[in-house]
Amino acid sequence: MQRPAEPEDNEKENKTMDISIVGSGSIGGTLARQLAHRGHTVTIANSRGPASLAQLADETGATAAETTEAITRARVLIISVPMGALPELGRTIDKHLPADAIVVDTSNYVPGLRDEHIAAIDEGLTESLWVERQLRRPIIKAFNTIGAASLASGGRPHGDSRRIAAPVSGADATAKQTVIALLDELGFDGFDAGDLGHSWRQEPGTAVYTTDLPLDQARKAVDAAVRSDTAAWRERMAALRQ
Ligand SMILES: NC(=O)c1ccc[n+]([C@@H]2O[C@H](COP(=O)([O-])OP(=O)(O)OC[C@H]3O[C@@H](n4cnc5c(N)ncnc54)[C@H](OP(=O)(O)O)[C@@H]3O)[C@@H](O)[C@H]2O)c1
Question: Would you state the pLDDT for residue 9?
Answer without folding.
Answer: 46
